[in-house]
Amino acid sequence: MKNPKPKEWSSDKWSKGYIADYKPFMFVDGEGVRCSIYVSGCLFACEGCFNKAIQNFNYGTPFTQELEDKIFQDLSHKSVQGLTLLGGEPFLNTEVCLRLVDRFRSEFGETKDIWSWSGYTFEELLLETEDKLELLSKIDILVDGRFELTRRDLTLQFRGSSNQRIIDVKKSLEKNETIIWEKCLDKERYND
Fold it and tell me: Residue 163 CB: number of other CB atoms within 10 A?
């Protein structure tokens, strides 16, 4: 597993704008029914990563307007609660993710929510590049931290290892401290 220094990895250097997968109407990538986009490329290289193939920035297919329109057609269903950004590493694919997030907010405002998974911790993202900070500021929930095989726990809600947290981003930015999502069912099981 790699641990970058602040601003060491930039999206414009690494991202190829590729998408590994798109899965509409999912129930496992956050609360409620979600449309999940898996971006290609990740540098963290966590041992035991369940998406190892999509660590490659050239994996998958280029993100297209056709796919974007399909995603928003699916998101418009009343039953869909929101959009989920996964990977790969969304914060190393900010061009694609910001394009989606900006359109999402334009079309849905705050009526639906945005979740993202990241190998970065919330605190690391606060020290990052402007594009990463912009993306962070526009999402609602962040599941943060690198997957740690030695802390693997498949009984945890929406995460794979006990070091990872489910963070309410808006409240955390407002209060300038890390606030765990109020609907987290197993907050007491976080291990620092």
Answer: 18
d(CA 68, CA 103): 9
- pTM for the model: 0.94
Q: Which amino acid is at 106?
A: S
Say how far apart CA 146 and CA 119 lie, in whole Å: 4
b/e per residue 79-110 (b: at least 16 CB within 10 A) = ebbbbbbbbbbbbbbbebbbebbebbeeebee
Contact, 18 vs 37, CB < 8 A?
no
Taking Cα atoms as reference points, which of 149, 152, 122, 145 lies closest to residue 135? 122
> What are the pLDDT digits (tens) for 117-162?
999 999 999 999 999 999 999 999 999 999 988 988 888 898 988 8
111-128 confidence digits (pLDDT tens): 999 999 999 999 999 999
Handedness of CA 153, 117, 122, 12 (dihedral sign): positive
Q: CA dist 135 to 77, 156, 160, 162, Å? A: 24, 26, 23, 25
CA angle 136, 138, 142 (to 5 degrees): 50
Provide the residue count of the chain: 192
What does the alpha-carbon distance between residue 57 and residue 93 come to, in Å, rounded to a whole number? 9
